[in-house]
Specification:
single chain, about 250 residues, alpha/beta, Alpha/beta knot, Trp Operon Repressor, Chain A, 2 domains, five-stranded parallel beta sheet, three-stranded mixed beta sheet, about 15% strand, binds adenine
């Protein structure tokens, strides 16, 4: 899968994509990431990418022309033939597993990072989607773009060593993940639960499911309304005090 990122700060992406799982995925040819400096597509002597807002007020606004130039140069002038272009903005739909999974099925995706206090509204004529990584405002769209690429890349087959893992993780199942342990068996009076040493796979699976249910009920009860729950799950949850308010 190929990602094209339009940004004023391509240098911010280096460390993140040059390490760990994303680096391995790139080396294996599973993921290609190209960053494009919007400033390189300005036509004026000073390479200006921002200007003061019409109507007054503080702050600077990202200019429309360099962004159109960059996108049309790299992705082509034919809008129908372009890969989807996502604007990273706190005004977008909030990123979740379903969005990441859906984009992982695309061969190519482009991301546009906003900066300064805003972006000329006419840029929206270029974009196909707007995504936020949460209800808070960062200084720019670069960190959100990295988060989105990472979240999508995990769903590309082969990127994560265990192909089942992304589908078992917190949120992918609709529940938070169960607790995990590795050696040592005991650390500062904290011991690994005996059930995990028992070798009874069915009982371990049941314990993990119950832990995931209990943890979700405690921390994110809002997720339970959308989760795929069996009758056994519901029984476990009711014993933990869950009120299934018969809305489903
Ligand atoms: N740019 C600034 N804040 C953002 C956010 N929360 N999500 C996506 N892009 C952003």
């Amino acid at each position: 899968m190929r990602f094209d990122v339009f940004t004023l700060f391509p240098g911010m992406f280096a460390g993140v994509f040059d390490d760990s799982i994303l680096q391995r995925a790139r080396a294996a040819g599973l993921v290609e990431i190209f960053t494009h400096n919007i400033r390189a597509f300005t036509r004026d002597k000073h390479h200006v990418c921002d200007d003061t807002p019409y109507g007054g007020g503080g702050g600077m606004v990202m200019k429309v022309e360099p962004i159109f130039e960059a996108v049309e140069n790299i992705l082509g002038v034919e809008a129908q033939a372009r890969p989807p272009l996502i604007l990273m903005t706190p005004q977008g739909r909030v990123l979740d597993t379903a969005i990441a999974r859906a984009y992982a099925r695309q061969p190519r995706v482009a991301l546009l990072c906003g900066h300064y206090e805003g972006i000329d509204e006419r840029v929206r004529a270029l974009v196909n989607d707007e995504i936020s990584i949460g209800d808070y405002v960062l200084t720019g769209g670069e960190i959100p773009a990295m988060a989105l690429i990472d979240a999508i890349a995990r769903f590309i087959p082969g990127v994560v060593g265990d192909p089942g893992a992304p589908h078992q993780d917190s949120h992918a199942t609709g529940l938070l993940e169960y607790p995990q342990y590795t050696r040592p068996l005991e650390f500062r009076d904290m011991r690994v639960p005996d059930i995990l040493l028992s070798g009874h796979h069915a009982q371990i699976e049941q314990w993990r499911r119950n832990q995931a249910l209990g943890r979700t009920l405690e921390r994110r009860p809002d997720l339970l309304a959308q989760a795929n729950l069996s009758e056994t799950d519901k029984k476990v949850l009711r014993e933990l005090g869950w009120q299934d308010n018969q809305t489903r």
